[in-house]
């Protein structure tokens, strides 16, 4: 079950290509109410990820 409410409108200024996420929408948009990126003190892009990610159910 999704942890956050899903919006009709995508978050502006966020491009996300994670098409296996419940909040992903075609066109590389994110429909989550808000997103949280983790962790603190990350050293590179590999280490940095979206903690709001939720696997798509289907
Ligand atoms: S919640 Fe995170 S991983 Fe999922 S679509 Fe939005 S930005 Fe991408």
Describe the model.
This protein has 58 residues and is mainly β. The protein has one domain. It is built from no helices and four strands. The strands form two sheets. A two-stranded antiparallel sheet has the order 1-2. It has a two-stranded antiparallel sheet with strand order 3-4. A hairpin with a 3-residue loop joins β1 and β2 (29-30). The protein is globular. The structure holds iron/sulfur cluster. The site of iron/sulfur cluster has 12 residues, from loops.
Order of helices and strands: EEEE
Largest sheet: 2 strands, antiparallel
Domain count:
1
Q: Number of helical runs?
A: 0
Percentage of helical residues? under 10%
Distance between termini? 11 Å
Strand neighbour order, sheet with most strands: 1-2
Q: Which key terms come to mind for this protein?
A:
binds iron/sulfur cluster; 58 residues; mainly beta; 4 strands; single chain; two-stranded antiparallel sheet
How do you describe this structure in short?
With 58 residues, this protein is mostly beta strands.
Helix and strand arrangement:
Elements: E1 24-25, E2 29-30, E3 37-38, E4 49-50
Antiparallel strand pairs: 1-2, 3-4
């Amino acid at each position: 079950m999704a942890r956050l409410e899903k919006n009709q409108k995508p978050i502006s200024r966020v491009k996300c290509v994670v098409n296996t996420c419940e909040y992903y929408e075609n066109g590389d948009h994110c429909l989550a109410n808000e997103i949280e990126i983790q962790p603190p003190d990350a050293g590179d892009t590999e280490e940095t990820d979206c903690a709001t990610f939720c696997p798509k159910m289907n």
